[in-house]
Amino acid sequence: MTHSEQPTVLVVDDDVDCAQSLCDLLGELGCCVQARHDGRSAVEAAVVLRPALMIVDLALGSEDGCRLMNTIRDLLPPGDRPVMVCLTGRADPRTELECLQQGFDLFLAKPLITEALHEVLAVAASRRRWRPQANLAVRSRPLPPPG
């Protein structure tokens, strides 16, 4: 991927409204975004799209976001593995530590604010050699709370 391309981001959240809000915000920040709402379609999309970044809800209905993240990592060759971000409404230090120990690269709490997303994009860009679009006109706004 060259520095000028838009990064591909895959958002995985069973809360359709939350996923759409996050996709809209990422689109405003210069990302090419797709959403999936279950583990099976997320795995299929990850294999096809090879996203630079995946933001995965920890609790996908009856599915486990950590298990999904590890399944995707196991399927993709090391050079194609996305930066994996856990997104959850359970924003306590113990949950964050468990998610990072399970293999997530980064942790985000709901409701998400734009500044936190900027930080995630900067970290992902440094690891995947793409440059986030500087769209500082986007206002800071929280995403809707988890359903």
UniProtKB/TrEMBL annotation:
Q: Which InterPro entries match?
A: Bact_response_regulator, CheY-like_superfamily, Sig_transdc_resp-reg_receiver
Which UniProt key words apply to this protein? Phosphoprotein
- Name the Gene3D superfamilies on file: 3.40.50.2300
Q: Where does the Response regulatory domain lie?
A: 8-125
Residues the record lists as 4-aspartylphosphate modifications? 57
On the tree of life, the source organism's domain of life is Bacteria
**One Pfam family of this chain:** Response_reg
SMART domains per UniProt: REC (SM00448)
Q: What is this protein called?
A: Response regulator
Species annotation: Aquincola tertiaricarbonis
At the highest ranks, the source species' classification is: Bacteria, Pseudomonadati, Pseudomonadota, Betaproteobacteria, Burkholderiales
